[in-house]
Every structure is written in C-alpha cells, then in structure tokens.
Amino acid sequence: MKKTGDKHKPTVATFDEQDIQKLKNGVQNVVKAAAPLGKCMDYIPDDLNAMNAELAKWQELCTRHAQELERRRQKSDQALAELNNELQEVEDQLRLQQKRIASMQHAMTQNDARIRQLMQSIITSS
Asked: Which of 28, 97, 113, 124 is paired with 4 by a 20 to 30 Å CA distance?
C-alpha cells in the first residue's frame, strides 16, 4: 500500500495488485475457517431439540419410577401394619396364656398345701 500526497494534504491510499491479492487470500482463509463453524451452528437447533426430547424422556421415566416407588411403599406400609396387628394379637394371647399358667401354678401350690395339711391331720388323728 502506498500513500500519495503532500504532508499537509490528506493522504489517499492506493492498493496495488499484491495488496489486493493478500486481502483476497486473507478473506478466503477467514471463510475457510468460518465455514465449519457455520455448519456446526446449523446443527445446534437439532441438537437442542434432541437434548430436550431426551430430557423429557428422562423426566417422564423419573416420574413413573417415583410413582411406582410410592405405590410399593404404600403396599409395604399396609402389609407391615397388618403384620404389626397380627404380632400384637399374638403377644396379647401370649400374655393371657402366661397369666393362666401363673394362675394354675398358684392354684396347684395352694392345692398341694391343702393336701399336705389334710394328710397331716389324718396322720395326727390316727
């Protein structure tokens, strides 16, 4: 690039063929470098749509599994409540049987004492 003119006059740039060729090559290099980027940018909406679809699929799967988990938890809680009720009934029956056994043992002890007393009175009266 050459400048023409006086020191006090505005300068005018003139371009020779070599400068124009350099500029042309530079523009071509920029276009070559930007072309792949442009192609990549063309796919961004498709990629976003695919990612949104995948996100929706995973969210739906998460919701479905959360509902299944809650259903199973309720079923387990219900079965556990039934088993706890049954356990309580068995424990109540056990306590009742233990009381009956204790009562019978007490009655047997009293009967043994009474029998000894009667035997003693028979032995002493003879």
From this structure: 28
